[in-house]
Structure formats: structure tokens, C-alpha cells
């Protein structure tokens, strides 16, 4: 039996605290494996951390961003979108006016009524059109139709539309009162011009003003209700 010193005996006793040699060896191997795994995870995290001035985004966002980049610089894209929106709005306005001109003609309205038709708040976003039908004499005639803005709206003839949009009755009355025409021209006699050479105010101007007043009143009422709702929330709180 080999001889050992007292110091070695004490050292051996300390080893025994950790277990048998096999147990200690296994613990050391497991710790080394965990250590290696943790170092690899730390290195992976370091690689995934963006450098200063960089942002980290998902793979899906990266693909979408690349698609945006193909359209050009954001400033240029914004300019093109704004120009396209303006052009689309202008084209839509021209299309609406062209349709309104045909509608007014088929409805027997004066040329001056077109701007009023477009300005009437109740007709905002309405679709004007003309449909061809045959009358009792088997003659093809043009019938004016309009469809109000909103869901589940159906096309109405001008006569039916007057029952829903009362101001249209004034337009028809204005057209019957108005004309004193020269050949090949559509003239308009101001209703309040007098003989003093002034331009006067036409009945169409009055109708447009009434429509604008109605719209402003509705907006004021809406703003007033909004203020009352906010005050009610404050009191409730």
C-alpha cells in the first residue's frame, strides 16, 4: 500500500466531497460542453446585433423593403404618388363634368346649371349618366339618370331624383324661366341684374349659395355635437 502524506490525505478528503472519480470526470465533461455551447450562443448573438447606424428587421420585412427599393428613392416615389393623385383627381373632375354636361342637356337644363349640379352637397360623389330609350312614338330619346354616392344606391331618372334631392326642382324651374337665346348660342339673363349694366346674381348663383350654406350649417352642427360629446366625456371622467 503506497504511503501518502497527511497533506495528500487532506487533499483526497476534499476530492471525496465531489464524489467518485467517475462522477467528477462526468461533471467536468458536462461543464465543458455547456461552456462551449454558451460560447457559441454568445458569438451568435454578437453576430446578430446590428452595428451602430444599422437596424435589425425580419426576413419578411427585408423582402418587402427590397421591393420598395426597386421603385426608387422614397422622395422620388412620394413625388410620383402625389403627382399621380393630383392627375387622377383632375381626370375624375373632368369626367364628372363631362357626364354632368350630358346629363344637364338630356334633362333640359341650361348650360349654367352644370356647375351648380356639381356643387350641390347632396350630389357630392354622384354618378351622372344618360341612357337611350324609345318613347311612345318609337323614337330614341336620351333619359338622364343619376346615382347618389353611398352603398346600395340605384340609378334614378331625373324626375325620380327630384323627389330625393329637392334642389333639383329649382334647377328645372330655373331653366324654364331663364332662356332668351340667340341662334347657336346659349344666353343667360341675370335674374337680378337690372338695367344698370351690372352682372347681377343669377338663380343658379342663389342655388349654389343655398347649397353652400346648407353644407356649412351641417358642418357647424357636426362640430357642435363633437364638442358636446367631448364635454360629456370630461364630465363623466
By DSSP (H or I, 4+ residues per run), the number of helices equals 8
From the N-terminal CA to the C-terminal CA, the straight-line distance is 90 Å
Radius of gyration: 41 Å
Question: Whole-number average pLDDT?
Answer: 76
Tally of extended strands? 3
Structural class: mainly alpha
Low-confidence stretches: 179-199
Q: What is the H/E order?
A: HHHHHEEEHHH
Q: Which strand order does the major sheet show?
A: 1-2-3
Estimated helix fraction: 55-70%
User: What form results from the Cα inertia axes?
Assistant: rod-shaped
Please give the largest β-sheet. Answer: 3 strands, antiparallel
- Residue share in β-strands: 5-15%
What do you see in this structure?
- There is one protein chain.
- With 237 residues, this protein is mostly helical.
- Strand 1 (127-134) and strand 2 (140-147) form a beta hairpin.
- It has helices at 6-18, 21-48, 59-70, 74-106, 113-119, 158-164, 167-177, 203-236, and strands at residues 127-134, 140-147, 156-157.
- The protein has a domain at 76-227.
- It is built from 8 helices and 3 strands, in the order αααααβββααα.
- Strands 1-2-3 form a 3-stranded antiparallel sheet.
- The protein starts with 5 loop residues before the first helix and ends with a helix.
- The protein is rod-shaped.
Core attributes:
single chain; 237 residues; mainly alpha; three-stranded antiparallel β-sheet; 8 helices; 3 strands; 61% helix; rod-shaped
Amino acid at each position: 500500500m503506497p504511503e501518502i502524506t497527511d497533506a495528500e490525505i487532506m487533499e483526497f478528503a476534499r476530492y471525496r466531497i465531489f464524489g467518485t472519480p467517475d462522477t467528477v470526470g462526468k461533471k467536468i465533461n458536462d461543464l465543458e460542453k455547456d461552456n462551449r455551447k454558451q460560447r457559441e450562443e454568445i458569438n451568435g448573438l454578437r453576430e446578430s446585433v446590428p452595428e451602430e447606424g444599422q437596424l435589425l428587421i425580419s426576413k419578411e420585412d427585408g423582402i418587402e423593403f427590397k421591393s420598395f427599393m426597386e421603385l426608387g428613392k422614397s422622395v422620388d416615389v412620394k413625388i410620383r404618388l402625389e403627382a399621380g393623385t393630383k392627375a387622377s383627381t383632375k381626370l375624375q373632375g373632368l369626367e364628372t363634368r363631362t357626364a354632368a354636361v350630358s346629363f344637364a342637356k338630356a334633362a333640359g337644363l341650361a348650360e349654367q346649371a352644370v356647375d351648380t349640379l356639381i356643387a350641390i352637397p347632396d350630389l357630392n360623389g354622384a354618378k351622372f349618366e344618360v341612357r337611350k330609350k324609345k318613347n311612345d312614338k318609337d323614337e330614341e330619346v336620351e333619359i338622364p339618370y343619376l346615382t347618389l354616392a353611398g352603398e346600395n344606391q340605384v340609378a334614378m331618372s331625373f324626375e325620380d331624383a327630384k323627389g330625393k334631392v329637392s334642389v333639383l326642382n329649382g334647377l328645372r324651374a330655373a331653366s324654364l324661366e331663364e332662356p332668351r337665346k340667340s341662334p347657336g348660342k346659349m344666353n343667360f339673363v341675370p335674374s337680378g341684374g337690372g338695367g344698370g349694366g351690372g352682372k347681377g346674381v343669377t338663380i343658379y348663383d342663389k342655388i349654389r349659395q343655398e347649397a353652400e350654406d346648407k353644407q356649412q350649417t351641417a358642418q357647424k352642427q357636426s362640430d357642435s355635437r363633437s364638442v358636446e360629446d367631448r364635454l360629456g366625456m370630461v364630465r363623466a371622467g
